[in-house]
Design a protein that fits this description.
single chain; alpha/beta; Rossmann fold; 6-stranded mixed sheet; 4-stranded antiparallel sheet; 10 strands; about 20% strand; disordered N terminus; binds adenosine-5'-triphosphate; nucleotide-binding; P-loop_NTPase; ATP hydrolysis activity
Length: about 300
């Protein structure tokens, strides 16, 4: 059995807190969610086919699946990028099904695969962090980016372990992809969102940067007790991170692994599950390419 202290973010203390927390609130409740694109045309795609999912506050859920199985669409549905055809979504007990993404933004933060999304390249590190800090705050007169706030941001940036704390006045556009993605993650968690959505957020990074961003992800999620969904193509990442793994195929959830099941599983076991699918449905290699056995 893998050590709980070194794998994922579920340390022994965290497990204890999770048990206590399991009596806590349901953070996300998705009921019979359906979504079709290009309905009634030859290009119709049935992207989500009756998703039912309940996530408790503080749960960290990894999502894997075949290509085009609906992983990003599920995240988009939670974020409110589009409205579902039918079904309901509740966040922190509030029915948000018919709310726009803008209206849900106060609850939800998101990090995408592309490190160039989510930050303003022409603005400095301090200005980007200040923008993230002010997001969703109704304050008048506006909070200024003064020396005290800059000091706060310096401390936050220090956590990234990328020597960026002395470069608060550098424009973000001058940073590497890894540095930028680490800052995007920091900006996403700065106001402690109710829900954090990570959509293959390390897939475009070099292995060293990806490892650092994963380390930060663990740290921020644990520290903030953030309810988190992370889509990944890496089966090792899916097993190592979080307390639950959902497997998707053709718009549905085909498996939902608990922490205990994840601990007992290896990447080969997961591969075997997908190999069964391949046999049962004659999937092509292209459909399975969404799954990688490598670490990051
Ligand atoms: N806005 C859209 N318009 C039309 N079709 C869409 C749209 N968004 C997603 N789809 C389709 O819905 C299906 C699910 O897409 P989605 O991006 O959610 O899959 P995924 O599991 O994230 O895939 P991948 O692992 O390849 O990134 C795909 O067939 C995709 O082409």
């Amino acid at each position: 059995m893998r050590s709980a202290d070194t794998q994922g973010w579920c340390t022994a203390g965290e497990l204890l807190r999770r048990e206590t927390r399991s009596r806590g609130i349901q953070m996300i409740e998705i009921t019979d969610l359906h979504k079709r694109f290009n309905t009634g045309t030859p290009n119709e795609v049935y992207a989500l086919r009756g998703i039912n999912l309940t996530i408790k506050e503080g749960d960290f859920v990894t999502i894997i699946g075949t290509n085009g199985s609906g992983k990003s669409t599920l995240l988009n549905a939670i974020a409110g990028t589009f409205l579902p055809d039918t079904g309901r979504i509740r966040i922190a007990g509030e029915d948000v099904t018919n709310r726009t993404d803008f209206q849900r933004a106060k609850h939800i933060a998101r990090v995408f695969q592309n490190p160039f999304m989510g930050t303003a390249p022409g603005m400095t590190i301090a200005e980007n962090l200040h923008m993230a800090y002010l997001r969703g705050r109704k304050v008048y007169p506006a909070i200024r980016l003064d020396a005290a706030r800059r000091q706060e941001y310096g401390k936050e940036v220090e956590q990234l372990e990328m020597q960026l704390e002395d470069r608060l006045d550098n424009v973000i556009g001058a940073l590497s992809g890894g540095q930028r993605q680490a800052l995007t993650l920091l900006m996403a968690v700065l106001n402690r969102p109710k829900v954090l959505l990570l959509d293959e957020h390390t897939a475009a990074l070099d292995p060293k940067s990806a490892a650092q961003v994963i380390k930060l992800t663990r740290r921020f999620v644990e520290k903030g007790n953030l309810t988190t969904f992370m889509v990944t193509h890496s089966m090792q990442q899916a097993l190592d991170l979080g307390c639950r793994t959902i497997m998707m195929h053709r718009g549905g959830i085909i498996d939902d692994l608990t922490l205990d099941e994840k601990r007992r599983m290896t990447v080969n076991d997961l591969l075997a599950k997908f190999a069964e699918l391949r046999q049962a449905e004659r999937l092509t290699d292209e459909m399975l390419v969404a799954l990688r056995r490598d670490y990051l």
